[in-house]
Design brief:
globular; 19 helices
Length: 531
Protein backbone atom coordinates (compact mmCIF):
# COMPACT_ATOMS: atom_id res chain seq x y z
CA UNK A 1 0.00 0.00 0.00
CA UNK A 2 1.09 3.56 -0.71
CA UNK A 3 -1.13 5.00 2.01
CA UNK A 4 -3.62 3.78 4.61
CA UNK A 5 -6.30 5.87 6.33
CA UNK A 6 -7.46 4.14 9.50
CA UNK A 7 -9.45 4.74 12.68
CA UNK A 8 -12.19 6.37 10.60
CA UNK A 9 -15.96 6.16 10.25
CA UNK A 10 -16.12 5.22 6.57
CA UNK A 11 -19.37 5.24 4.65
CA UNK A 12 -18.68 3.63 1.29
CA UNK A 13 -22.11 4.52 -0.22
CA UNK A 14 -21.93 1.28 -2.21
CA UNK A 15 -25.15 -0.56 -3.06
CA UNK A 16 -25.11 -2.25 0.36
CA UNK A 17 -24.36 1.01 2.20
CA UNK A 18 -21.50 -0.82 3.90
CA UNK A 19 -19.23 0.80 6.47
CA UNK A 20 -15.58 0.30 7.36
CA UNK A 21 -12.78 1.60 9.59
CA UNK A 22 -9.84 1.76 7.19
CA UNK A 23 -9.07 2.26 3.53
CA UNK A 24 -5.83 1.53 1.66
CA UNK A 25 -4.55 3.24 -1.48
CA UNK A 26 -2.21 1.92 -4.15
CA UNK A 27 -1.36 3.78 -7.37
CA UNK A 28 -4.14 6.26 -6.67
CA UNK A 29 -6.87 3.64 -6.38
CA UNK A 30 -8.60 1.89 -3.51
CA UNK A 31 -6.84 -1.41 -2.81
CA UNK A 32 -8.22 -2.20 0.65
CA UNK A 33 -11.38 -1.54 2.66
CA UNK A 34 -11.84 -3.13 6.04
CA UNK A 35 -11.09 -3.08 9.75
CA UNK A 36 -8.42 -1.21 11.69
CA UNK A 37 -7.03 -4.54 12.87
CA UNK A 38 -6.46 -5.80 9.34
CA UNK A 39 -5.21 -2.44 8.05
CA UNK A 40 -2.48 -2.22 10.67
CA UNK A 41 -1.07 -5.57 9.56
CA UNK A 42 -0.58 -4.34 6.00
CA UNK A 43 2.82 -3.21 4.77
CA UNK A 44 2.72 0.59 4.42
CA UNK A 45 4.96 3.46 5.54
CA UNK A 46 2.24 6.14 5.37
CA UNK A 47 -0.53 5.31 7.83
CA UNK A 48 -2.85 8.21 8.71
CA UNK A 49 -4.91 8.08 11.91
CA UNK A 50 -8.20 9.91 11.30
CA UNK A 51 -9.09 9.80 15.01
CA UNK A 52 -12.66 8.62 14.49
CA UNK A 53 -13.64 11.21 11.91
CA UNK A 54 -16.12 10.64 9.06
CA UNK A 55 -14.63 9.68 5.68
CA UNK A 56 -16.77 9.87 2.53
CA UNK A 57 -16.22 9.74 -1.23
CA UNK A 58 -14.92 13.10 -2.50
CA UNK A 59 -17.71 15.58 -3.23
CA UNK A 60 -18.78 16.26 -6.82
CA UNK A 61 -20.70 19.41 -7.82
CA UNK A 62 -22.83 18.47 -10.84
CA UNK A 63 -23.53 22.01 -12.02
CA UNK A 64 -21.65 25.23 -11.47
CA UNK A 65 -19.69 27.88 -13.37
CA UNK A 66 -16.21 27.43 -11.93
CA UNK A 67 -14.37 29.75 -14.28
CA UNK A 68 -16.95 32.50 -13.91
CA UNK A 69 -16.80 32.06 -10.13
CA UNK A 70 -13.06 32.76 -10.26
CA UNK A 71 -13.68 35.77 -12.51
CA UNK A 72 -16.39 37.16 -10.21
CA UNK A 73 -14.10 36.73 -7.20
CA UNK A 74 -11.79 39.30 -8.80
CA UNK A 75 -14.66 41.58 -9.88
CA UNK A 76 -17.04 43.74 -7.81
CA UNK A 77 -19.25 41.42 -5.75
CA UNK A 78 -22.72 42.75 -4.96
CA UNK A 79 -24.22 39.68 -3.24
CA UNK A 80 -24.56 41.33 0.18
CA UNK A 81 -25.94 44.66 -1.03
CA UNK A 82 -29.20 45.85 0.52
CA UNK A 83 -29.92 48.64 -1.96
CA UNK A 84 -29.01 49.99 -5.38
CA UNK A 85 -27.04 52.65 -3.52
CA UNK A 86 -24.90 49.94 -1.89
CA UNK A 87 -24.13 48.55 -5.35
CA UNK A 88 -23.16 51.96 -6.70
CA UNK A 89 -20.94 52.63 -3.68
CA UNK A 90 -18.95 49.41 -4.20
CA UNK A 91 -18.59 50.11 -7.91
CA UNK A 92 -17.36 53.63 -7.25
CA UNK A 93 -14.80 52.38 -4.72
CA UNK A 94 -13.41 49.91 -7.25
CA UNK A 95 -13.14 52.58 -9.96
CA UNK A 96 -11.28 54.87 -7.59
CA UNK A 97 -8.86 52.11 -6.58
CA UNK A 98 -7.83 51.11 -10.12
CA UNK A 99 -5.48 53.12 -12.31
CA UNK A 100 -6.98 53.69 -15.78
CA UNK A 101 -9.65 50.97 -15.78
CA UNK A 102 -10.91 49.91 -19.23
CA UNK A 103 -14.17 48.29 -18.04
CA UNK A 104 -16.00 47.43 -14.81
CA UNK A 105 -17.85 44.17 -14.17
CA UNK A 106 -20.09 43.74 -11.11
CA UNK A 107 -22.32 40.80 -10.17
CA UNK A 108 -24.64 39.59 -7.46
CA UNK A 109 -27.36 42.17 -6.76
CA UNK A 110 -30.80 40.83 -5.88
CA UNK A 111 -33.59 43.39 -5.75
CA UNK A 112 -35.67 40.97 -3.63
CA UNK A 113 -33.21 41.69 -0.80
CA UNK A 114 -33.26 45.47 -1.19
CA UNK A 115 -35.04 47.66 1.36
CA UNK A 116 -36.46 49.48 -1.70
CA UNK A 117 -36.88 46.66 -4.25
CA UNK A 118 -35.90 47.98 -7.67
CA UNK A 119 -33.36 47.45 -10.45
CA UNK A 120 -30.35 49.73 -10.97
CA UNK A 121 -30.73 52.17 -13.88
CA UNK A 122 -28.47 53.14 -16.77
CA UNK A 123 -28.37 56.77 -15.62
CA UNK A 124 -26.99 55.76 -12.22
CA UNK A 125 -24.19 53.83 -13.88
CA UNK A 126 -23.52 56.78 -16.19
CA UNK A 127 -22.95 58.88 -13.09
CA UNK A 128 -20.02 56.57 -12.31
CA UNK A 129 -18.51 56.77 -15.81
CA UNK A 130 -19.48 57.50 -19.39
CA UNK A 131 -16.02 56.63 -20.71
CA UNK A 132 -15.77 52.91 -19.90
CA UNK A 133 -18.44 50.16 -20.10
CA UNK A 134 -19.98 49.22 -16.76
CA UNK A 135 -22.31 46.31 -16.13
CA UNK A 136 -24.11 45.09 -13.01
CA UNK A 137 -25.36 41.51 -13.40
CA UNK A 138 -28.19 40.22 -11.22
CA UNK A 139 -27.44 37.26 -8.93
CA UNK A 140 -29.17 34.83 -11.33
CA UNK A 141 -27.07 35.90 -14.33
CA UNK A 142 -30.14 36.30 -16.54
CA UNK A 143 -30.67 40.04 -16.07
CA UNK A 144 -28.21 42.95 -15.97
CA UNK A 145 -28.02 46.72 -16.28
CA UNK A 146 -25.26 48.55 -18.14
CA UNK A 147 -24.32 52.18 -18.76
CA UNK A 148 -24.54 54.17 -21.98
CA UNK A 149 -20.98 53.33 -23.03
CA UNK A 150 -21.76 49.65 -22.55
CA UNK A 151 -24.85 49.97 -24.75
CA UNK A 152 -22.86 51.77 -27.45
CA UNK A 153 -20.33 48.94 -27.60
CA UNK A 154 -23.04 46.28 -27.47
CA UNK A 155 -24.80 47.82 -30.48
CA UNK A 156 -21.57 47.47 -32.46
CA UNK A 157 -21.25 43.68 -32.21
CA UNK A 158 -22.40 41.70 -35.29
CA UNK A 159 -24.94 39.72 -33.27
CA UNK A 160 -26.81 42.76 -31.94
CA UNK A 161 -29.82 42.31 -34.28
CA UNK A 162 -30.33 38.86 -32.71
CA UNK A 163 -30.52 40.24 -29.17
CA UNK A 164 -32.00 43.71 -29.73
CA UNK A 165 -35.39 42.61 -28.36
CA UNK A 166 -33.69 41.81 -25.03
CA UNK A 167 -32.09 45.25 -24.69
CA UNK A 168 -33.85 48.30 -23.24
CA UNK A 169 -31.87 51.30 -24.47
CA UNK A 170 -33.71 53.67 -22.12
CA UNK A 171 -33.04 51.85 -18.84
CA UNK A 172 -29.91 49.90 -19.81
CA UNK A 173 -31.67 46.64 -18.92
CA UNK A 174 -30.37 43.48 -20.58
CA UNK A 175 -32.06 40.07 -20.49
CA UNK A 176 -30.98 36.50 -21.27
CA UNK A 177 -28.72 36.26 -24.36
CA UNK A 178 -28.12 40.01 -24.31
CA UNK A 179 -26.38 39.54 -20.96
CA UNK A 180 -24.23 36.78 -22.38
CA UNK A 181 -23.29 38.66 -25.56
CA UNK A 182 -22.25 41.68 -23.49
CA UNK A 183 -19.12 39.77 -22.51
CA UNK A 184 -17.92 40.01 -26.11
CA UNK A 185 -17.52 43.78 -25.81
CA UNK A 186 -14.85 43.27 -23.13
CA UNK A 187 -11.23 42.35 -23.79
CA UNK A 188 -10.56 38.62 -23.53
CA UNK A 189 -8.01 37.50 -20.91
CA UNK A 190 -4.81 35.83 -22.12
CA UNK A 191 -4.37 32.07 -21.83
CA UNK A 192 -2.10 32.61 -18.82
CA UNK A 193 -4.81 34.67 -17.16
CA UNK A 194 -7.41 31.98 -17.93
CA UNK A 195 -5.12 29.35 -16.41
CA UNK A 196 -4.75 31.50 -13.29
CA UNK A 197 -8.56 31.74 -13.00
CA UNK A 198 -8.83 27.96 -13.33
CA UNK A 199 -6.15 27.30 -10.69
CA UNK A 200 -7.79 29.75 -8.28
CA UNK A 201 -11.17 28.05 -8.72
CA UNK A 202 -9.69 24.58 -8.26
CA UNK A 203 -7.92 25.59 -5.05
CA UNK A 204 -11.11 26.97 -3.52
CA UNK A 205 -13.15 23.94 -4.56
CA UNK A 206 -10.59 21.58 -3.01
CA UNK A 207 -10.94 23.48 0.27
CA UNK A 208 -14.66 22.61 0.16
CA UNK A 209 -13.94 18.88 -0.13
CA UNK A 210 -14.71 18.85 -3.84
CA UNK A 211 -12.77 16.44 -6.05
CA UNK A 212 -14.94 16.68 -9.17
CA UNK A 213 -17.17 19.19 -10.93
CA UNK A 214 -19.46 19.37 -13.93
CA UNK A 215 -18.92 22.95 -15.00
CA UNK A 216 -20.25 25.38 -17.62
CA UNK A 217 -17.18 27.46 -18.54
CA UNK A 218 -16.77 28.04 -22.28
CA UNK A 219 -18.83 31.24 -22.33
CA UNK A 220 -17.80 32.41 -18.86
CA UNK A 221 -15.21 35.09 -19.57
CA UNK A 222 -14.94 38.40 -21.42
CA UNK A 223 -14.22 37.97 -25.10
CA UNK A 224 -16.08 34.65 -25.34
CA UNK A 225 -12.97 32.88 -26.62
CA UNK A 226 -13.97 29.24 -26.06
CA UNK A 227 -10.94 27.85 -27.87
CA UNK A 228 -8.61 29.71 -25.52
CA UNK A 229 -10.52 28.34 -22.54
CA UNK A 230 -10.33 24.78 -23.91
CA UNK A 231 -6.61 25.26 -24.58
CA UNK A 232 -6.09 26.46 -21.00
CA UNK A 233 -7.86 23.46 -19.49
CA UNK A 234 -6.00 20.99 -21.68
CA UNK A 235 -2.62 22.67 -21.09
CA UNK A 236 -3.05 22.49 -17.31
CA UNK A 237 -4.17 18.87 -17.60
CA UNK A 238 -1.17 17.93 -19.75
CA UNK A 239 1.17 19.64 -17.27
CA UNK A 240 -0.49 17.73 -14.40
CA UNK A 241 -1.54 20.99 -12.71
CA UNK A 242 -5.22 20.18 -12.12
CA UNK A 243 -6.25 18.79 -8.73
CA UNK A 244 -9.84 18.37 -9.83
CA UNK A 245 -11.84 16.15 -12.18
CA UNK A 246 -13.65 18.47 -14.60
CA UNK A 247 -16.52 17.33 -16.83
CA UNK A 248 -17.13 20.33 -19.08
CA UNK A 249 -20.73 21.36 -19.80
CA UNK A 250 -20.18 23.04 -23.18
CA UNK A 251 -22.32 26.17 -23.58
CA UNK A 252 -22.49 28.39 -26.67
CA UNK A 253 -24.88 31.32 -27.11
CA UNK A 254 -25.37 30.62 -30.80
CA UNK A 255 -26.55 27.31 -32.22
CA UNK A 256 -24.15 27.55 -35.17
CA UNK A 257 -21.21 27.76 -32.75
CA UNK A 258 -22.41 24.66 -30.89
CA UNK A 259 -22.77 22.74 -34.14
CA UNK A 260 -19.33 23.92 -35.28
CA UNK A 261 -17.89 22.58 -32.00
CA UNK A 262 -19.38 19.17 -32.75
CA UNK A 263 -18.43 19.25 -36.42
CA UNK A 264 -14.82 20.00 -35.44
CA UNK A 265 -14.83 16.60 -33.76
CA UNK A 266 -15.49 17.30 -30.09
CA UNK A 267 -17.61 14.60 -28.41
CA UNK A 268 -18.93 13.80 -24.96
CA UNK A 269 -16.43 11.55 -23.21
CA UNK A 270 -13.21 12.76 -24.86
CA UNK A 271 -10.80 13.03 -21.99
CA UNK A 272 -7.37 13.70 -20.67
CA UNK A 273 -6.27 12.80 -17.16
CA UNK A 274 -8.65 15.13 -15.32
CA UNK A 275 -10.42 17.14 -18.06
CA UNK A 276 -13.29 15.58 -20.02
CA UNK A 277 -15.67 16.96 -22.66
CA UNK A 278 -19.13 16.57 -21.17
CA UNK A 279 -22.60 17.41 -22.48
CA UNK A 280 -23.67 20.21 -24.75
CA UNK A 281 -25.17 22.77 -22.34
CA UNK A 282 -28.18 24.73 -23.57
CA UNK A 283 -30.50 27.40 -22.20
CA UNK A 284 -34.24 27.07 -22.79
CA UNK A 285 -35.56 29.75 -20.42
CA UNK A 286 -34.56 32.35 -17.87
CA UNK A 287 -34.90 32.63 -14.09
CA UNK A 288 -37.76 32.67 -11.62
CA UNK A 289 -36.52 35.76 -9.77
CA UNK A 290 -36.36 37.75 -13.00
CA UNK A 291 -39.76 36.37 -14.15
CA UNK A 292 -38.17 35.02 -17.33
CA UNK A 293 -38.53 31.27 -16.61
CA UNK A 294 -40.91 29.86 -19.25
CA UNK A 295 -44.26 29.00 -17.67
CA UNK A 296 -47.42 27.35 -19.02
CA UNK A 297 -49.57 29.82 -17.08
CA UNK A 298 -48.77 33.53 -16.57
CA UNK A 299 -46.90 34.75 -13.50
CA UNK A 300 -49.13 36.00 -10.71
CA UNK A 301 -50.21 39.63 -11.19
CA UNK A 302 -47.86 40.18 -14.13
CA UNK A 303 -50.05 41.06 -17.08
CA UNK A 304 -49.99 37.73 -18.89
CA UNK A 305 -46.19 37.32 -18.71
CA UNK A 306 -45.29 33.64 -19.28
CA UNK A 307 -41.52 34.14 -19.39
CA UNK A 308 -39.07 33.54 -22.20
CA UNK A 309 -38.46 30.36 -24.19
CA UNK A 310 -35.19 30.52 -26.10
CA UNK A 311 -36.01 27.96 -28.80
CA UNK A 312 -39.24 26.99 -30.54
CA UNK A 313 -40.39 23.39 -30.31
CA UNK A 314 -39.28 22.73 -33.89
CA UNK A 315 -35.83 24.17 -33.18
CA UNK A 316 -35.48 22.09 -30.02
CA UNK A 317 -36.49 18.94 -31.88
CA UNK A 318 -33.76 19.56 -34.46
CA UNK A 319 -31.11 20.41 -31.85
CA UNK A 320 -31.69 17.32 -29.69
CA UNK A 321 -31.79 15.07 -32.76
CA UNK A 322 -28.53 16.63 -34.06
CA UNK A 323 -26.72 15.96 -30.79
CA UNK A 324 -28.06 12.43 -30.52
CA UNK A 325 -26.93 11.75 -34.08
CA UNK A 326 -23.42 12.99 -33.19
CA UNK A 327 -23.22 11.10 -29.87
CA UNK A 328 -23.40 14.13 -27.59
CA UNK A 329 -25.04 14.21 -24.18
CA UNK A 330 -27.26 17.28 -23.66
CA UNK A 331 -27.96 19.25 -20.44
CA UNK A 332 -30.62 21.94 -20.78
CA UNK A 333 -31.27 24.82 -18.37
CA UNK A 334 -35.01 24.74 -17.59
CA UNK A 335 -36.65 26.33 -14.57
CA UNK A 336 -40.25 26.78 -15.73
CA UNK A 337 -42.74 24.01 -16.51
CA UNK A 338 -43.22 25.11 -20.13
CA UNK A 339 -39.48 24.94 -20.78
CA UNK A 340 -39.35 21.42 -19.34
CA UNK A 341 -42.36 20.26 -21.33
CA UNK A 342 -40.68 21.43 -24.54
CA UNK A 343 -37.34 19.79 -23.79
CA UNK A 344 -38.94 16.51 -22.73
CA UNK A 345 -40.98 16.46 -25.94
CA UNK A 346 -37.83 17.02 -28.01
CA UNK A 347 -36.04 14.17 -26.23
CA UNK A 348 -39.05 11.89 -26.73
CA UNK A 349 -39.16 12.69 -30.46
CA UNK A 350 -35.45 12.25 -31.18
CA UNK A 351 -35.05 9.51 -33.80
CA UNK A 352 -31.39 8.91 -32.88
CA UNK A 353 -31.50 8.68 -29.08
CA UNK A 354 -31.35 4.89 -28.89
CA UNK A 355 -28.27 4.96 -31.15
CA UNK A 356 -26.51 7.52 -28.93
CA UNK A 357 -24.15 5.92 -26.37
CA UNK A 358 -24.12 9.24 -24.50
CA UNK A 359 -27.86 9.68 -24.21
CA UNK A 360 -28.17 10.49 -20.50
CA UNK A 361 -29.76 13.84 -21.29
CA UNK A 362 -30.71 16.07 -18.39
CA UNK A 363 -32.57 19.13 -17.19
CA UNK A 364 -30.54 21.64 -15.21
CA UNK A 365 -32.47 23.13 -12.25
CA UNK A 366 -35.88 21.43 -12.86
CA UNK A 367 -37.55 23.67 -10.28
CA UNK A 368 -41.19 24.30 -11.27
CA UNK A 369 -42.09 20.67 -11.88
CA UNK A 370 -45.40 18.87 -11.40
CA UNK A 371 -46.45 15.22 -11.24
CA UNK A 372 -46.89 14.97 -15.02
CA UNK A 373 -43.39 16.34 -15.70
CA UNK A 374 -41.82 14.05 -13.10
CA UNK A 375 -43.51 11.01 -14.63
CA UNK A 376 -42.22 11.97 -18.07
CA UNK A 377 -38.70 12.45 -16.72
CA UNK A 378 -38.89 9.02 -15.11
CA UNK A 379 -40.25 7.35 -18.25
CA UNK A 380 -37.62 8.92 -20.51
CA UNK A 381 -34.74 8.46 -18.03
CA UNK A 382 -33.98 12.19 -18.00
CA UNK A 383 -31.44 13.40 -15.44
CA UNK A 384 -32.23 16.19 -12.98
CA UNK A 385 -29.34 18.50 -12.03
CA UNK A 386 -30.71 20.05 -8.82
CA UNK A 387 -29.39 22.74 -6.45
CA UNK A 388 -30.53 22.35 -2.81
CA UNK A 389 -29.13 25.82 -2.00
CA UNK A 390 -32.04 27.32 -3.95
CA UNK A 391 -34.23 26.55 -0.93
CA UNK A 392 -32.46 29.45 0.74
CA UNK A 393 -32.54 31.66 -2.34
CA UNK A 394 -36.09 31.04 -3.57
CA UNK A 395 -38.42 29.89 -0.79
CA UNK A 396 -39.77 33.39 -0.13
CA UNK A 397 -40.59 34.20 -3.76
CA UNK A 398 -41.86 31.00 -5.40
CA UNK A 399 -45.52 31.15 -4.35
CA UNK A 400 -45.75 34.87 -5.11
CA UNK A 401 -44.45 34.15 -8.62
CA UNK A 402 -46.57 31.13 -9.57
CA UNK A 403 -49.52 31.07 -7.13
CA UNK A 404 -50.51 28.53 -4.48
CA UNK A 405 -52.30 26.32 -7.01
CA UNK A 406 -48.99 25.45 -8.73
CA UNK A 407 -46.97 24.63 -5.61
CA UNK A 408 -47.48 20.86 -5.66
CA UNK A 409 -44.27 19.00 -6.63
CA UNK A 410 -42.03 22.07 -7.04
CA UNK A 411 -38.38 21.77 -5.94
CA UNK A 412 -39.45 18.14 -5.56
CA UNK A 413 -36.20 16.34 -4.83
CA UNK A 414 -37.56 13.64 -2.53
CA UNK A 415 -40.27 12.85 -5.07
CA UNK A 416 -37.62 12.58 -7.79
CA UNK A 417 -35.51 10.11 -5.84
CA UNK A 418 -38.52 8.05 -4.75
CA UNK A 419 -39.59 7.78 -8.40
CA UNK A 420 -36.13 6.62 -9.48
CA UNK A 421 -35.25 9.81 -11.35
CA UNK A 422 -31.47 10.23 -11.54
CA UNK A 423 -30.96 13.47 -9.59
CA UNK A 424 -27.52 14.92 -8.80
CA UNK A 425 -26.52 17.83 -6.60
CA UNK A 426 -24.92 21.08 -7.69
CA UNK A 427 -24.62 24.66 -6.55
CA UNK A 428 -24.83 26.87 -9.67
CA UNK A 429 -21.97 28.93 -8.20
CA UNK A 430 -21.28 31.84 -8.41
CA UNK A 431 -25.05 32.43 -8.22
CA UNK A 432 -24.67 30.99 -4.71
CA UNK A 433 -21.99 29.26 -2.65
CA UNK A 434 -20.58 25.85 -3.66
CA UNK A 435 -20.33 24.81 0.02
CA UNK A 436 -21.48 21.16 -0.14
CA UNK A 437 -22.20 20.94 3.60
CA UNK A 438 -24.59 23.88 3.29
CA UNK A 439 -26.25 22.19 0.32
CA UNK A 440 -26.71 18.99 2.32
CA UNK A 441 -28.19 21.04 5.18
CA UNK A 442 -30.68 22.70 2.81
CA UNK A 443 -31.69 19.34 1.29
CA UNK A 444 -32.17 17.67 4.69
CA UNK A 445 -33.88 20.47 6.63
CA UNK A 446 -35.53 22.50 3.82
CA UNK A 447 -34.75 25.57 5.97
CA UNK A 448 -33.00 28.76 4.98
CA UNK A 449 -29.54 29.62 6.27
CA UNK A 450 -31.11 31.19 9.38
CA UNK A 451 -33.00 28.01 10.28
CA UNK A 452 -36.45 29.08 9.11
CA UNK A 453 -39.16 27.93 8.83
CA UNK A 454 -38.83 25.65 11.83
CA UNK A 455 -40.63 22.75 10.15
CA UNK A 456 -38.96 23.32 6.79
CA UNK A 457 -40.28 24.64 3.47
CA UNK A 458 -42.39 21.95 1.77
CA UNK A 459 -41.22 19.45 4.41
CA UNK A 460 -42.56 16.46 2.46
CA UNK A 461 -39.58 16.93 0.11
CA UNK A 462 -36.89 16.64 2.81
CA UNK A 463 -34.10 14.18 2.10
CA UNK A 464 -32.28 11.92 4.53
CA UNK A 465 -28.62 12.73 5.16
CA UNK A 466 -27.63 9.66 3.16
CA UNK A 467 -29.76 10.72 0.18
CA UNK A 468 -28.34 14.24 0.28
CA UNK A 469 -24.74 12.99 0.47
CA UNK A 470 -25.33 10.71 -2.51
CA UNK A 471 -26.51 13.69 -4.58
CA UNK A 472 -22.94 15.02 -4.35
CA UNK A 473 -21.13 11.70 -4.74
CA UNK A 474 -22.68 8.55 -6.17
CA UNK A 475 -25.48 10.19 -8.16
CA UNK A 476 -23.27 12.95 -9.55
CA UNK A 477 -20.83 10.34 -10.88
CA UNK A 478 -23.69 8.71 -12.80
CA UNK A 479 -24.41 11.99 -14.59
CA UNK A 480 -20.87 11.98 -16.04
CA UNK A 481 -20.71 8.26 -16.90
CA UNK A 482 -18.07 7.73 -14.20
CA UNK A 483 -20.02 5.65 -11.69
CA UNK A 484 -17.52 2.82 -12.21
CA UNK A 485 -14.57 5.12 -11.41
CA UNK A 486 -15.58 7.16 -8.37
CA UNK A 487 -18.58 8.38 -6.35
CA UNK A 488 -18.49 5.41 -3.98
CA UNK A 489 -15.62 3.82 -2.05
CA UNK A 490 -15.05 0.40 -3.61
CA UNK A 491 -12.04 -1.67 -4.58
CA UNK A 492 -10.51 -0.54 -7.85
CA UNK A 493 -12.10 2.91 -7.86
CA UNK A 494 -10.12 6.13 -7.56
CA UNK A 495 -9.24 7.09 -4.00
CA UNK A 496 -11.12 10.41 -4.07
CA UNK A 497 -11.95 11.12 -0.43
CA UNK A 498 -13.18 13.81 1.93
CA UNK A 499 -12.71 13.81 5.71
CA UNK A 500 -15.12 15.87 7.81
CA UNK A 501 -14.62 17.34 11.26
CA UNK A 502 -17.92 15.92 12.54
CA UNK A 503 -20.18 13.00 11.64
CA UNK A 504 -23.05 14.61 9.72
CA UNK A 505 -25.03 11.36 10.01
CA UNK A 506 -25.10 11.66 13.80
CA UNK A 507 -25.32 15.38 14.65
CA UNK A 508 -28.40 17.61 14.71
CA UNK A 509 -29.24 18.33 11.04
CA UNK A 510 -29.31 22.06 11.82
CA UNK A 511 -25.57 21.85 12.56
CA UNK A 512 -24.56 20.25 9.24
CA UNK A 513 -24.00 23.60 7.55
CA UNK A 514 -21.31 24.48 10.11
CA UNK A 515 -19.23 21.29 9.74
CA UNK A 516 -15.70 21.80 8.41
CA UNK A 517 -13.83 19.89 5.74
CA UNK A 518 -10.62 18.60 7.33
CA UNK A 519 -9.01 16.88 4.36
CA UNK A 520 -9.52 16.40 0.62
CA UNK A 521 -7.81 13.55 -1.24
CA UNK A 522 -7.69 13.09 -5.03
CA UNK A 523 -6.42 9.78 -6.42
CA UNK A 524 -4.71 9.12 -3.08
CA UNK A 525 -2.97 12.52 -3.00
CA UNK A 526 -3.86 14.94 -0.21
CA UNK A 527 -4.75 18.18 -2.00
CA UNK A 528 -6.14 20.05 1.00
CA UNK A 529 -5.69 19.74 4.76
CA UNK A 530 -7.22 22.17 7.24
CA UNK A 531 -4.71 23.58 9.69
Amino acid sequence: MDKIFYNAKIRTLDDSNSTAEAIGVENGKIAFIGSNEKALTLQCDDKIDLEGRLLLPGFVDSHLHMLHYAFVEKSVKLFDCKSVEDCLKLAKERLESVSKPTWLFCRGWNHENFTNPRYPHKDELDALSTEIPIIMVRVCGHVAVCNTRGLELLKQIPQFPEIAQDVDLDTGLLKENAVQFYYSVLEAPSQNEVEDFIKHGIRKLNEAGITGIQSDDLASLPGKNWRRIMDAFMALDQRDEMNLRIYEQCLFERLEDAKAFVEEGFRTGQRGKFFTVGPMKMLQDGALGARTAAMNEPYENDGGNIGISIYTQEELDDIIAFHDKHHMQVAVHCIGDRAMDMVIEAIEKSPYRKENPKNRHGIVHAQITNQRILEKMQKNEILAYIQPVFVDLDMDIVESRIGAHRMDKVYAWKSMLDMGIHASGGSDAPVVSFDVLENIYFAVTRKNINGQPAEGWIPSEKLSVDEAVKLFTKYAAYASYTEDEYGTLELGKWADLVVLGEDIYEIDPDEIKDVKVDMTVLAGKTIYARA
